[in-house]
Amino acid sequence: MRRYVLAFSLVGVTFAALAHDAAADLIAEVSFNGGAFVSICTAPSGTFCIGNASGGGLVLTMTGGQSNSPGTPTLALLLSSTLSLMNTNASGTATAHLLIGDTGFRAPTGSVSLLSHIGGSVAVGDSLNAMSFFSSIDQGNGQNVSPGTFNTAAVTPNITAAGSYDASNSAAIPSVSAPYSMTENLTITLSAGSIVNYSSSTTLSPVPEPVSLLLVGTSLIGLGISFRRKRAANAQRRMT
Questions:
Q1: What is the per-residue pLDDT across 126-174, written as a single tens digit (0 to 9) for each?
Q2: What's the chain's average pLDDT?
Q3: Does pLDDT of 10 surpass 70?
Q4: What is the pLDDT of residue 91?
Q5: Which strand ranges, in their side-by-side order, compose the sheet holding 110-124?
Q6: Which end of the chain has fewer CB atoms surrounding its CB within 10 Å, N or C?
Q7: With bands split at pLDDT 50, 70 and 90, how would you rate the model's confidence at 106?
């Protein structure tokens, strides 16, 4: 997953100056301290958006999202990151709830595996800091619908002390059909003066069909039998 996060960082510089479509289907939004969600950035599906936001004492710097909607037969991809999230309150905690999602995914479909990953660093920590992250698939193709039809279990990496953090989770989905949407759901609570950043990735990839697995297994068995016969024949020739 780290290679996707790295790719996201590199592509971000290229697309940062692009104008954003107000009617876009890639949307990053945030709610501060339980308030209404406000848009951080928007862009056409399958592209990149970036922006800044602040409220309730929290300052989000360089937050963005990226996807490959409508996806490919082997991968549906959604990425997001924040360069920094800082609590500028003189006292007390503050919470940011982020939703980053895109619609119109058409592949892969069928039996798939949903993988959710988040990592980053804590510049200034505190015992009251907390984080929760999970990924959602909405079979109704709704914008930033989370929880959705399918979800990974939430991960809660430790962000109380300065240093790096990393957490992943996955979910097996027996069947997904097109079109569908993907959303990342992140909640961060910070005490006064705390600073963190993050990079995340959500991927959907096909699970090999049982028939394919059977064919692979049968081929391996056949190779094993052929190898044993050849070894036995060589041994017999040496004896004669």
A1: 999 999 999 999 999 999 999 999 999 999 999 999 999 999 999 999 9
A2: 86
A3: no
A4: 86
A5: 48-55, 58-67, 76-87, 195-206, 110-124, 163-176
A6: C
A7: very high
Residues 190 and 82 in one domain: yes
Which H or E run includes 25? none
- Among the residue ranges 24-33, 99-108, 137-146, 225-234, the one predicted with the least confidence is 225-234
Q: Alpha helix (H) ranges present in 26-181?
A: none
- In the three-class reduction of DSSP (H, G, I as helix; E, B as strand; rest coil), residue 129 is classed as coil
Residue 131 β-bridge partners: 188
Residues 221 and 117 in one domain: no
Same domain? For 163 and 231 the reply is no
How many H-runs (helices) and E-runs (strands) does the chain carry? 2, 12
Both 46 and 142 in a single domain? yes
- 133 and 170 part of one domain: yes
Give the structural domain span for 218: 209-240
> Do residues 82 and 162 both lie within one domain?
yes
The β-bridge partners of 95 are: 189
- Closest to 166 (Cα-Cα) out of 127, 123, 122: 122
Smallest Cα–Cα separation from 99: which of 212, 207, 185?
Answer: 185
Q: Into how many domains does the chain fold?
A: 2
Q: Are residues 237 and 192 in the same domain?
A: no
